[in-house]
Predict the structure of Zn-dependent hydrolase.
Amino acid sequence: MEVMRGVRVIEGMNGGRFPYCNVVVVGDVVIDAGAGLEVMRKVNASLLVLSHLHPDHSSGAWLFKDVLAPAEGRITLDTLARRFVAPDLVESWKRFISAATGLREFECERYEEGVVVKEPEIVAVPVKGHTMDHHVFLIEQKVLFGADVDLTSFGPFYGNPEADPYLFEREMDKLLDIDFEIFVSAHSKPVFGKEEAEGRILEFKRKIKEREEIILSLLEEPKSLDELVELSPIYGRKPYAKEILDFFERVMIEKHIEKLEMEGRVRKEDGKYVRV
């Protein structure tokens, strides 16, 4: 789909939903590589630029010789697993991701904030909190690739240990100050017009506060973290890799509870949390 002259969005397999993503081709450059190996093999680009290193965005990076990323050196399944999940889940995460996405190790060079590619102009803007290396890209001063500010109904993901939902919430405000005409999501359809996109970004951000309120409501009666994970206020259903999704849910709930404890809105009693 050509969203403007010279800027093409290629929808990932499964409609761009996890474990895939939509990618953007502009000139001889492709942004992200998670559309599925079958799709990525057909992409005609000499340079790959990665928004961050989540496997649904980087799985096809090994197909490209020249890769720019917010990291440098050799990226392996093992190093990503040890970053994104608990030690006891490393092997199961690696098996799941390898089977689901085809990710292999790859080499990359680091880019910094600002102009990443001069022609066509691609500017990297860090939007941390989803991961600490997450970036969005302004393309030709008109198209904003929002990466995992993805505007999906699920809402923001912050299930890795390094993630921070409240930092992510603040960092997303940067997008409201950028002048753009078209917003491209990694996991949903493009949005045409800044006003419409701003409304969708604000709605996406609100999910963080909504989850906080849901967790508070569940803590009217004391509950352990295990009980909260079982109730699944964030995922609701876990149709695959349940032990991994349970881990992500636990991390996200913990991050909310940590803030609520600091604010004096939740306290811990006998190993359970309760609303104050």
About this structure: The chain has a mean pLDDT of 98. The longest helix spans residues 194-218. Residues 261 and 267 are 6 Å apart (CA to CA).
